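Hi there, hope your week has been kind to you so far. Please have a think about how the structure follows from the sequence. I've dropped the whole record in just underneath, so have a look:

_____
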Amino acid sequence: MNITGIESVNFWALMQMDRKYPYRFLLFIFLLHGHAVLAQEICNNGIDDDSDGLVDLHDPDCQCHFVVTDNLLQNGSFELYDHCPVNYTYISDSKIATYWQYGSLMNEAEYYHNLTCSFDSSTIMVHMPPVLPLPDGEGFVSILNSAFINPIPEKDMPKGYVGQCLQAPLSAGDSYTLSFYAGRFRSWDNFIGKNFPFTVAVFGNADCNAVPFGDLSALGNGCPSNYPGWVLLGKKDVTSAGEWVQSKISFIPSSPINVIEIGVDCSVLPQIPDLADSTTFLDYHIYYLDDLHLLPTKDFPFQYIHAQAGTGCDGGLPILESPAFTNATYQWYKDSVAISGATGTTYALRDMSGESYYNVLISTPGKCIITEPFLASSGLNKIAMPADTVLCDNNDLVLAPAIDGITYIVNGTTADNVTITRQGSYSVTATDNFGCQRTFNVNVVGQKCTDCDLYLPSAFTPNGDGLNDIFKAASYCNFSGFDLQIFNRWGEKVFESHNSNTGWDGTYLGSKMLSGVYVYFITYSTASHTTKTAKGTVALIR
């Protein structure tokens, strides 16, 4: 693999382009020579061998290519086209590539085929030719992301997208993966040793008529999320030092998606003034896309690390296990940097204090495979759910957010977070990547919260099992001056608290109270300075 991506430089074109600046061509030759003597990146030593600022799996030189053989997209490599591009205004050439159309009315994407069309040969082959051969076939698209010395709002930025109405909708709650090749070529920034990442993003909408978006009279239209119905499904930062890089984006739509757009995200590029004599200012902001595949994630040809059954659930450190192949060698990575001496089919984790991703590079004769990242974290310990809680005025109640590496089963249904929409009893089981589990039983009561009422359980069981052990008030409004007092049947005060988060654990002066009925009195002040009271009985059950 040519690590600088300079094999495609058109020297004749460069000389013609640089007649005005003859010294720049000499500078280019010097820079070219400087790159030629760089060392090749070694992918298992934790060192930036080629001095490009990227170590081990962070470096595109160390990436293995995967082969995808199916596709929900049509013409994913842009091979089918209606005619040779003449110009790139949306009105006249909106659908050059079959099944695709430019994403916005401003048309800041461009389509190329075979590099022999007149526009292609007179512009792209002069200013920014791609590395050849292309990832697949002879067609590809370019994506523009503009920046301005004087910043303007993102919604007015010229940004590029290509869109396609899908033959069948993407289903809500299912996981999908978009794979692609992307590259940025002949940038002066690359030649001076910098590697600035660019972002590939995918947006979705339920309405195929939402493409194209924007206004022809505007300076720019920003990203799709500025327009009704569009949502960001996922994005990926890619680093290309003059070569095609294969990458992917995985996402889970929250609602059915019928059309997607692919291009830059909604961020605003920082002000980046180019060299004073450069004629290639925009190449910093342009990247190419080719060979797009969209499939359910379960159908992608990826390999996965597994945790050995039972490891890590008893407080010990888990053991990770790689897929096994015949005549293969293995190298483990933590956060994409090689782990010295970790060359077996298994790896025992040494630290679980934070969050880290692990991969294995598997080398077989004539092929290499990199497993999907495996998240090792203590995310299960971050989850806490009350035994009793209140659902206010039929609003959604989030009992547990989405956490990387955690899946939930809520009353038998798999979910990535726990959001309650109606009152009832819920059994929630949280499972991490190691197969370790925690189960919560939550009773949710619907209540009007506009009056700042309190919810209190009628009974609690302080037996130390972690379920319903504490008697305390719950509310979803702001209040102050809280005072809770609890009395036994003889009128003796056995507990008092001025903090609504501190409840009674069923003890008095260090001794466990007997099962029975106890009386509580509560006073508190609402945000409108109204003093309210609550009183009743609670059953202590042992």
In short: The chain has four helices and 32 strands. Residues 1-37, 188-193, 275-283 have pLDDT under 50 and may be disordered.
